[in-house]
Amino acid sequence: MEVGLKFAHMKIYHLKLNHKMLEGAKCAFLPGDPARVQKIALSYDQQARPLASSREFTSFLGYLEATPVLTISTGIGGPSTAIVIEELAMLGVDTFIRIGTTGAIQKHIQVQDVIITTASVRLDGTSTHYAPIEYPAVAHFEIVQALIAAAQALAVPHHIGLTASSDSFYPGQERYDSFSGWVIRRFQGSLKEWQRLGVLNYEMESATLFTVCSALGLRAGCVSGVIVNRVLENQIQEKATPLAEAKTIQVAVEALRRLLKTS
Ligand code: URA
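A: This is the predicted complex of the input protein with uracil.
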């Protein structure tokens, strides 16, 4: 029995989706924020329509050219991201592109640039439930290639490389502008250390996404729009966020368009 058929009519627990609702979709865009789902779906299909909304998981289905493509929010962080991957995989989805936002930690990266992650430092907890910490969190090379080709074709300024993917926004990303203003010893000096090790940025889902997908034999990639450069400041540049998001969406959609042509 095909895996998705088990869920043909029965809705899967968290996402409130079934196999039939997906109309055969095998690819999904994964923003964190439910409020960004509709915008992403309408960017590749003016007729895209809502499927379900439960907790942090809001989903839309649209067609990219003739192929059904799901957009669904993961919420923030590893646990909810892993739920999305698990449940969509049970419904037959095998390709995931995260569309995120991020804080850069290298001086030369500008707010509103995009970052294409090749692999992530596993500062999350969820990925350790799927594979030991020695196992790498790596994006699928076909998706990385497609994201790079898309950013080049669209002339979107982009950076390619390593991401530190943290379960916490404040201490794990060495932020002192928090309630306590304090960071435990493990993370004191960590931003500088990641910088020296060539890491480009911080975000909160890619380590889980890559590890879970590799462990389950699925394909994943991640493109993020820079909304703060932590070398210069801690404050998110809210005014810069819409353009950073728009560029990231364009790159992700163009990458999937290219992937669909070749696979
Ligand atoms: N997302 C993060 O996880 N960190 C940032 O600094 C910005 C967005």
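The chain has one domain: 5-262. DSSP finds six helices and ten strands in the chain.
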